[in-house]
Automatic annotation (TrEMBL):
PROSITE patterns: ARGINASE_2 (PS51409). This is Formimidoylglutamase. It is an enzyme of class 3 (hydrolase). The gene is hutG. It comes from the Bacteria. Belongs to the arginase family.
Length: 273
């Protein structure tokens, strides 16, 4: 696939597993702040595991109609549960073995037994390696991925029991761009890139339902994403967890919209290998 891309698959997934937060409203607000036109939309109002399964099933159906396998896919989603479905597109069109780069302030590696809060958005990465919620993976037609094919970037807020799970699965963690690029070479598989906006510092993005001190400044985020996308291995990207209610002055909206535009342009102009 040596030719340049002139367009990509662009989806808006309006779902949050938690009805007490407003992350389900984030995707539409973000896409409205850009000049981009989605090729597909999915909306799911039921919270909890039921909604998670529903949105996974809806995407499986939508995938077959609205995604062109010859082009990369960008999806703006609610909380991180929706990011599971990105792997559905990767595995359906690019094979079962994919390299998942999970950029997030949180590890999202909890299970129902390890989580103190019970927040489903803190569990999707564990689900993707087969540690919990097999019914969600089944609805989305996803096979669990080996933990050795996961790279966790920028994580700075980990629960104690979650830390034990990460050690058990030997998940690779980094906050270094060069080591991430080396991982892309070493794993040598199509890349699914998940970007949770809470990895950004609160000065850049105050719109975080679960804020954590520290994080990437805007220049660091652009540099990281540009270098990963320039490897031409990225086939699917999800951007998640923008909470409009916490963004009183639209600072997060402006910065995240700029990031989405950058990802779109990079995916559009860089060929997939």
């Amino acid at each position: 696939m040596g030719e340049s891309r002139t367009k990509i698959n662009l989806g808006v997934i309006s779902f949050s597993s938690e009805d007490t937060k407003d992350m389900s409203y984030g995707p539409e607000k973000l896409i409205a702040s850009t000049n981009l036109i989605p090729t597909f939309r999915i909306e799911e109002s039921a919270p909890g595991v039921e909604g998670w399964m529903n949105v996974s099933r809806s995407f499986r159906i939508t995938r077959n109609v609205h995604i062109d396998r010859s082009m990369p896919t960008l999806m703006i989603v609610g909380d991180c549960t929706s990011s599971v479905i990105g792997m559905s597109a990767v595995q359906f069109y690019h094979g079962k073995e994919a390299h998942l780069i999970w950029i997030d302030a949180h590890a999202d590696f909890n299970t129902p037994d390890s989580s103190k809060s019970g927040f489903l958005g803190g569990m999707p990465l564990n689900a993707l390696v087969g540690g919990c919620f097999p019914e969600v993976l089944s609805y989305a037609e996803i096979s669990p991925i080996p933990a050795s094919y996961v790279t966790l970037f920028g994580c700075r807020d980990i629960d104690p029991l979650e830390e034990l799970l990460l050690q058990k699965y030997e998940v690779v963690r980094t906050s270094d761009v060069n080591s991430t690029l080396q991982r892309i070479k070493d794993v040598n598989r199509p890349v699914y890139l998940h970007f949770d906006t809470d990895v950004l510092s609160l000065d850049v993005n105050p719109a975080a339902s679960y804020p954590s001190p520290g994080g990437l400044v805007l220049e660091e985020a652009f540099d990281l994403l540009q270098q990963i996308l320039e490897t031409n291995r990225v086939v699917v990207v999800t951007v998640s967890a923008y909470s409009p209610a916490y963004d009183k002055n639209n600072i997060g909206l402006r910065n995240i919209s700029a990031i989405i535009q950058e990802i779109y342009e990079r995916l559009s102009t860089h060929p997939m290998n």
